[in-house]
Amino acid sequence: MKLVVWTWLVLFGRCVRASSGDRLPEFQQCVSECKIDGAGCPNGPRLALILILTGWTCEANCRYQCTHTVTQASIKTGGSVHQFYGKWPFARLLGMQEPASVLFSALNGYAHYCGHRAILRLSLVRSNPFKRLYLLNARLCMFGWQCSALFHSRDLPTTEKLDYFSAVASLLFNAYISISQLFKLADSRRKHIRRAFQLACILFLSIHISYLTLWDFDYAYNMAAGITIGMSSNLGWLLWTALQYTRRRYAYKIVAFVVLISCAMALEVLDFPPILWVLDAHALWHAATVPLVFLLYSFFLDDLRFEESGGALLGKDASE
């Protein structure tokens, strides 16, 4: 879902790639020694097949092994748990670096799939352009959560960019929907405005991706762009609700979605070492968004039903 609220510091807040742990002399020495005869290294044993298939190399495996070696040594001496390369130490599973986040990313993707299927099954007599937009939103989000699962499986430059770019694309498309609702851009009389707005969105996304791909990745800019888009989306939905609530009582659902997503963000602020080296605040944030996806699609479905009724459901929840 990676959409709607972006005070989403989470997705784009990984601005620091170096951390206290990877600067420790004992960690650097451990990695240097491991690269000589560690698993997958020139003089070491072969990496397990599952690690080869998931893209682990000599250096990546040495960093993983030394992260846990140094962490356990620090804990035994009463020291603190450090972050390494911007991440807490995680216990990998089947080659996946952050298995809990992978699982919850997949569940979010499945929730969007359920929403997509529900919209497809909704039979409409009246032509409604928002049905197509809601379906496209679901497809974008399904793709985005697949990218998230890949990124949490293996944090590589390619998977990182896929995750970040798909997140921005999802946010931008949700902003497009909210602004289209607010200013009634689906109206044929506003066709030229709608097309100009579409072109502006496509142009922005193209420049955004090009800038972050052709030059060094600017994490601060990426975060600022995501927050700006998300806040625009939120504002659009809130203004639309203020204007439509007396006619569309189901509009409270999108407000609830925005508020609950914002509350779920508090999990990110907690940022603590993973429980059992698996479950951290970021994974919990992904877990919290799963049920909220169903709330979002409940709103989308009610909106489509309301339009299908010709606005006859005044003063009622469209789902009744």
TrEMBL record:
It is found in: Endomembrane system; Endoplasmic reticulum membrane. Keywords: Endoplasmic reticulum, GPI-anchor biosynthesis, Membrane, Signal, Transmembrane, Transmembrane helix. It is a multi-pass membrane protein. InterPro entries: Per1-like (IPR007217). One of its GO terms (molecular function) is hydrolase activity, acting on ester bonds. One of its GO terms (cellular component) is endoplasmic reticulum membrane. GO terms for biological process: GPI anchor biosynthetic process. The keyword RNA-binding does not apply. The chain crosses the membrane at residues 164-183, 195-214, 220-243, 250-270, 282-300. PANTHER family: PER1-RELATED (PTHR13148), POST-GPI ATTACHMENT TO PROTEINS FACTOR 3 (PTHR13148:SF0). Belongs to the PGAP3 family. Involved in the lipid remodeling steps of GPI-anchor maturation. This is Post-GPI attachment to proteins factor 3.
